[in-house]
Amino acid sequence: MFLLFLLFYLPKVNAQELGSENNYDSTLAKKIGADEYGMKQYVIAFLKKGSHRSQDSTQRDKIQRAHLKNIMRLANEGKLIIAGPFLDDTDIRGIFIFDVNNLEEAKKLTESDPAVKAGVLSMELHPWYGPAILPETMKLNEKLEKKKITGVLRHTSSTENSDLFWGLRGGVVILESSWRWNSTCTRWR
User: Fold this and answer.
1) pTM of the predicted model, to two decimals?
2) H or E stretch including 80?
3) Of 58, 61, 141, 168, which is the most buried if we count CB atoms within 10 A?
């Protein structure tokens, strides 16, 4: 009798506790390409230190500006939905999440990055299965941004901004950054 209780009663309790009511929106699911689980495939890219990192500060600044410009271009095209640096000092420098269906397309997009072309960064690509709503959440992020993207970069050296130089061991520093997607991009509107 106890076994019957476990088999028939507990699954119903668990389903009720988890919220068995379904708020499925077929129009939204179709619009964003969600499967029956509300998920879809993306490609995730780990940005890693490249093999050519010996540029002078002027060249690094030029590459970094071009890299950020490329990020914004890909975001405005609806291909790049998440981008950002990791905050620790390892060989993995940052992450991209591409809203594309296959590795080949993501590879072409990463090859358009000036930092990859210059050998400053390399990309490690992986197919990733994640929430289909992810691109839509970026609309909400604008409401949370107190500061907008500024593109402020600062050179550091032992004589120029030396406090940052010694704290970060040299290079270009991004002082402020928050992602703001172009409001004219129809992909998220």
Assistant:
1) 0.66
2) strand 80-85
3) 61
